[in-house]
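Collaborator request log, item 7. Partner lab (contact: R.S.) asked for a structural prediction of Aminoglycoside phosphotransferase domain-containing protein to inform their binding assays.
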Amino acid sequence: MSAPTLLSSYDRDEWVALVLDDIDGRHPGGALDGSDVGAVLDAFATFPRVERPDQGGLPRVSDEITDEASGWREVLDDGAAADLPEWVRQSIDSLESAAAEASTALSGDFLQHLDSRADNVLLDQAGRAWIIDWPWAGVGARWVDGLMYLFDCRVRGESVDTEGVLRSHPLFDGVPESSVDAVLSAMSGGFFAKSRRPAPPNMPTLRAFQKTEALAGIDWLRERWQAKG
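Returned to partner:
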């Protein structure tokens, strides 16, 4: 599995510290040309199936997505439909319907990182990707982290043929198009809803960033649906 080896740990008085194997590397995506995507997805593909997931203490991704999937309804119930992009307003029924399927789409028994961004990945000198920083680990469908990383590429403006990657990388073998749509819709609706909430203390830029994420997700989903006609 492409994660640093746990060397030791400390857990006392509500403080936890982990000692991990040091990875001499760099974050992927610096060239913004998509050249590191394959290595990162290869790393996510090494994540194992979790034996007895209900006894391991890790949350189910399918449960965690519930709040995200209700994001479109939250925005509409708040009377904020006018703040949504025109394509979203025209497609809101389809977006709600797709998002409602996200929980089923994400069901699975594989270990997942669930914060799969470039800043949580290191590429070593041999070009192998290592996944670091694991506070949000959960259990779900094998391909979840891979899709989230492609989403991060689009948010950061990296030049990646995301649809080509979905068709060609083994991590996504057998994943239905509808499952990808469901997750993208749920995420985008969740980010739109969160972007309208008051900013948390000491994080004044979070809501603007969540709006950026929402727009990136919608752009990807719009491209996918328009390509299907």
